[in-house]
Amino acid sequence: MNATTTRGSLLAALACVLVGGSFTANSLLGDYPYAGGQFLRYGLAFLLLVPLAGPGAAARLRALGAARWLRLALLAAVGMVGFNLAVLAAERTAEPAVPGVFVGCAPVVVAVLVPLLEGRRPQRIVLYGALFVAVGAFTVQGWGRTDGAGIAFSVCALVGEVGFAVLAVPVLRPLGPRLLSTVVCGVAAAESALAGVLADGTGWLRRPDAVEAGALLWQAVVVTVVGFVCWYMGMQRIGAERATLFSGLIPVAAACTAPLVGTGSYGAAQAVGSALVFAGVAVGSGAALPSARARRSAAERQTAPERSLEKL
Predict the structure, then answer these.
(1) Considering the chain, what is the average pLDDT of its residues?
(2) Left (φ > 0), alpha (ψ -120 to 50) or beta: where does 286 sit?
(3) What is the pTM of this model?
(4) Contact (Cβ atoms closer than 8 angstroms) between residue 234 and residue 148
(5) Residue 210, pLDDT score
(6) Where is the EamA domain (predicted)?
(7) Could you say which DSSP state residue 258 is in?
(8) Diameter over CA atoms, the chain
(9) Cβ contact 222:18 at 8 Å
(10) CB–CB of 99/86 below 8 Å?
(11) For residues 33-58, average pLDDT
């Protein structure tokens, strides 16, 4: 791995670990209105990201066509607001492990879908790594009680996770990670407010208590501001296929942090699953394989004695 790939991998890994921690924070927001919580989270993140959007942000936004603005709206609706709503809806009739297992399949879907959309064949090594990650995520979380509605909403959560990566690909280059994160947070805040008013009327927003405020601050500042920027910076360097491999770290991070708030435990199954996830990420991202330069150097070292013998 070269320096760019290493930085991209570390950024993607950090982002997914932070998102995994947010699942633990979600457990503290069970009584807070969904849309109101999403509005506060993304609205605060938007305000914090605006100063970080970079020079020329207004000009870059004006240069976007209607198709790209529609893509940004879909990215926020599907990959952010819709994803969180799907997870919440799934957990009403299914145990949390069920949507987690479906979301853990996102690396496999992205490893196939992104190359096909770009008119090329999927990379075999990335696909193998994605399969390892999916099996590891399943092992970490296991399977739980569910019904048809729980499975349907879990599939919607998978679509949201895939959309968060795939829909961002064409707009990441013109906007950059910071401005892209800023825009989608602003759009997601507006969509959350609209959904809240339509679904819950005047009760869509209330003052959070101390625990809820702490959880919302963690999600807004750490998970959204830091996590989103790191995610898109990583995706910019290593591509959507390899970056999505690191989403397997989300259930690992959730399993590691759940005991801190008494909502779970970390045992042998979680340890085995974590090892499978790490192996899949290492294989699929290329970290477990020697770089081209290293392979050339090894080949040169191997053939050097043969050339010396020929001279003799």
Answers:
(1) 83
(2) left
(3) 0.81
(4) no
(5) 92
(6) 7-139, 165-283
(7) G
(8) 90
(9) yes
(10) yes
(11) 92
